[in-house]
Amino acid sequence: MPNTLVAILALVGSMLLVLGQQQVLERDRADMIKGELEIMAGGIALQVMEHIAMFPFDEATADAAFDPEAFSVADLAAWPFVQQGSVPMEFDDARYLEDFHQVQIDTLEFQVGEMSMPFSVDLEVYYLDDDKNQITERTRNKEVRVSISHERYPNALVVLRRSFAP
């Protein structure tokens, strides 16, 4: 009887050890997947921000020669990682930085070989005071915030901010 109890105790102890190791491996795997998604989200955030940066600060500072059609997203050469046809039409309607405020894109797909990964994009444009604090009055400083998230992670994977001035 005592040998049976010792054997059962040894078996339970080894099972707990193996379970702990399995949980560590699963957590490492989940962290690697999240890291890969963050890299993809960072690429999309940079591409979106570079596209937005091509637009004039506001109507008063726009060059008369500015042609928004020249920056149409129909030319996907500027979006090398984004799947053909997944660029939203909201981008074609924008003429100035503030036109991107509260634009939400449900699906912007990152192309990986023959596979694509869907991401959500949230854009916000704010006015900033001289100390870089958000305010509601018009100023000569704006901040564009690009937040990229994935259906698997509800919080933003990447948040990219950039300040603009005329």
**Helix coverage percent:** 25-40%
What ranges have pLDDT less than 50 throughout 5 or more consecutive residues? 73-77
Largest sheet: 5 strands, antiparallel
How many structural domains are formed by the residues? Answer: 1
Average pLDDT rating: 78
Number of helices: 2
Number of strands: 5
Rounded to the nearest angstrom, the distance between the terminal CA atoms is: 85 Å
- What is the element string, with H for helices and E for strands? HHEEEEE
What characteristic shape results from the CA principal axes? elongated
Q: Hey, roughly how much beta strand do the residues contain?
A: 25-35%
Task: Specify the structural class.
Answer: alpha+beta
Radius of gyration: 24 Å
List the helices and strands and how they pair.
Elements: H1 2-53, H2 90-93, E1 104-112, E2 115-128, E3 134-135, E4 142-150, E5 153-164
Antiparallel strand pairs: 1-2, 2-3, 2-4, 4-5
Model description:
By secondary structure, this protein is of the alpha+beta class. It has one domain. It has 2 helices and 5 strands. Strands 1, 2, 3, 4 and 5 form a 5-stranded antiparallel beta sheet that branches. Strand 2 (115-128) and strand 3 (134-135) form a beta hairpin. The longest helix has 52 residues, at 2-53. The radius of gyration is 24 Å and the shape is elongated. Mean pLDDT is 78; it is low at 73-77.
